[in-house]
């Protein structure tokens, strides 16, 4: 393993180690240890991401497996499940955004949660969330993408219901969990179709076969395969990125502490769907129907969530509906194939919306 590959591994592992220390020993370690190890982990990850960013700017990209944990089948029908990284311009931008916003949220939390009895547990959760998000954006195959996808869903469930003695928080985290499962069902169907027809779960290999896939239809129907795959994948994105009609969980998720709102609902988790569609753009570009579907859903979300935001009277819900509307704009950009515009908006939105939440307090 080269020194650069070790650095790639360090990016997700540093927050994970901090999360494990703060989480497993939350009852015995003092507060300063919990926040120090998690902040150190995210800071190390941010510095490593910056070094990788400089390397990518110099023209070096990476796409490969670091570890194979399962293979099934024989011959041409073999399906390998690997942990691998795809490091390119899109990935490093997401890594920097996730790590930087996460680091700021960690620092803000020291003051915000100072009186809270669940202080150590909270730091463990937000560090674990950062690890999950990094695994999602760095993945080079659908299995790892799905692992990161479900992990951010699980941690967001724990965070939204962080104050578990409040009935409203329990209701809100259950709602978020169930609505996300609806989206994830579509996402899983899309991944299943790719595994069945392309015979691989590696992005690069799937993209290489896209000309063959265009000509195929779903067995037993006359639906074009790629249209079905793209719409299923986008249904997953609708759950995570809170597009109509799967947007209902996001305003209620404001029951969690404010740092969570800044981290999950501004910068990282809700942009996972936008990132995923951008990553899958070679497939989406071959299906006019899927792009039209993305465009209509995005436009509907952008317009109606803006209207709903106007009539809210709780500051965090106002900002939450604003987030929904902004995500609608990003989705519209994806629908008209303006991927660079969508990702640029994603990056600027991460910073200004996180600041809005942290300012709302």
Could you please describe the fold and organization of this structure?
This protein is mainly α and 361 residues long. The protein has 16 helices and two strands. 73% of the residues lie in helices and 6% in strands. Helix 11 packs antiparallel against helix 16.
What is the topology?
Blueprint: H1 3-24, H2 31-57, E1 62-72, E2 79-87, H3 89-112, H4 119-138, H5 142-160, H6 167-198, H7 203-208, H8 210-214, H9 225-240, H10 249-252, H11 258-267, H12 272-279, H13 281-284, H14 288-310, H15 315-335, H16 339-360
Structural class: mainly alpha
Report strand %: 5-15%
Helix coverage percent of residues?
over 70%
Q: Please state the average pLDDT score.
A: 95
Number of strand elements: 2
Task: Using the CA coordinates, give the radius of gyration.
Answer: 20 Å
Task: Compose a concise summary of this entry.
The protein is mostly helical and 361 residues long.
Features:
361 residues, mainly alpha, 16 helices
